[in-house]
Amino acid sequence: MVSGRCLCSGVRFEITGELGPVIQCHCSMCRRASGTAFATNAPVHADAFRIVQGQELITEYESSPGRRRAFCSRCGSPLYSRMLDRPEIRRVRLGTLEEDPGARPVAHTWVSAKAAWDTLCDDGLERFDEAPPPPYYGSPGPRR
Length: 144
Prior knowledge:
By secondary structure, the protein is mostly beta strands. It has a single domain (2-127), classed as Beta Complex (Metal Binding Protein, Guanine Nucleotide Exchange Factor, Chain A). Helix content is 5%, strand content 40%. The chain is built from 1 helix and 11 strands. The protein has one helix at residues 28-34; strands at 2-5, 12-15, 22-25, 39-45, 49-53, 58-64, 67-72, 78-83, 86-93, 105-109, 126-127. The strands form 2 sheets. The chain has an 8-stranded mixed beta sheet with strand order 6-7-8-9-4-3-10-11. The chain is globular. The termini are close together.
């Protein structure tokens, strides 16, 4: 199990399943949502993701049709995103995790949209100009 929380600790959650591929997304929406050069996300099965405190503090924003980004309404921490056509998946923001999940980034996505000031280092990860093919995006790890 891995636990996570927002900045103010008002929202706490647990993940009991394995994370899917860890992706560093450079799209403009992820940059704006995270306030940094990219967002590091990993999919997890929705039934393995449980809010244990602060459900009432979670606010969702529809950033594009059918996509919702969840954040703490008190401190603004981004927590996860979900797609209405894929209700079985939550894409968790790895910066909210309290422990090392064991998973490591496997790719950079939307590199064509990276910030002009971002000097993407040569870290050996796969790079995709846009969205990657399956199994990268939205494929959680096996259920436990």
